[in-house]
Amino acid sequence: MRIHMKQKNNTDINISVQSILKKKYIQSDLFRHISYLLKLKNAVIVAHYYTNPEIQALADSTGGKVADSLEMAKFGQNHRAKTLLVAGVRFMGETAKILNPEKLILMPTLKAECSLDLSCPEIEFSKFCDQHPERTVVVYANTSAAIKARAHWVVTSSIAIKLIDYLDSLGKKIIWAPDKHLGHYIQKKTGADILSWHGTCVVHDEFKAKSLYNMKKIYPKAAVLAHPESPETVLELADFIGSTSELIKSARSIAQKQIIIATDRGILFKMQQACPDKILLEAPTSEVGMTCLNCGMCPWMKMNTLKKIINSLTQNKDDHEIHVPKQLQKKALKPLIRMLKFSEKFF
């Protein structure tokens, strides 16, 4: 059960999930201390697949949840804990607060942003929407509370195609934001009339088709799994395209034993647990002779650490608490509820 990875200096390394799980910190005073703090605060950890392996292991071992954005939202809504500790990026914390206004929402750091969120400023996007009042506004979950409040619908990548297909069947013309690659992919799959915003993910936008093609020559029997936030030229080389949860399911069911993964390397922790007999290979994020900027890792996701989790449970909560103004909560809640109700038809 191995993962083949490349570090920034292109040195090959192998990481075993089991070796991570067996590391001393899993049984250490640190984990026991955090578990005690969670019980003391009536708190539970909700972590994204892209966070560090030790964060995911902590969430699993303390009754929390490791999931994609949609399942994180559902878990937070349904769990009885009064405090949700969201290990991810800021928009995930905001979403948790909007859906659970009565709960205390904490994050290990409030500085963990998302490039897609940052690429879609409220004033600019609102003007863009005002220029096309006849269109239905659909925004990705990777957006701020203010952008969600401006939208008719919020979606995650796991239900985006289904929702756009549904709206297209009603004759709706769409404004899509913020990821242009995902927007183009959805347009190709559904044939819908989509006017797309111009944002990109700093991780997925780095995947290179030429380097991936060359990697496929080295591993001719390997399947390629890609997240739809990747460029079109990368998706054209993929055997399966889907959300983080869908990629994990595909890795488990696909016949090939070698799998090239074109998404954030954080997913490899859960993916290898799901398919211990598979060899997982990281897709390249740079051309020959070039260095990658993020090297398959979201820099903001990696800001979540065990130390910061302890700080969020013991220090001044103002440095960790997510606040969303009540009027904004009410507006943003409507498209989020539409998303959750729509997703119930398929999950």
TrEMBL record:
EC class (word): transferase
Location relative to the cell: Cytoplasm
One BP annotation, GO: 'de novo' NAD+ biosynthetic process from L-aspartate
Pfam families tied to this protein: NadA (PF02445)
EC identifiers of the protein: 2.5.1.72
Co-factor requirement: [4Fe-4S] cluster
InterPro entries for this protein: NadA, NadA_sf
UniProtKB keywords: 4Fe-4S, Cytoplasm, Iron, Iron-sulfur, Metal-binding, Pyridine nucleotide biosynthesis, Transferase
Pathway named in the protein's UniProt entry: Cofactor biosynthesis; NAD(+) biosynthesis; quinolinate from iminoaspartate: step 1/1
GO molecular function: 4 iron, 4 sulfur cluster binding; metal ion binding; quinolinate synthetase A activity
One Gene Ontology cellular component annotation held by this UniProt entry: cytosol
Signal peptide range: none
Protein name: quinolinate synthase
Organism: Glossina austeni
Native organism taxonomy: Eukaryota, Metazoa, Ecdysozoa, Arthropoda, Hexapoda
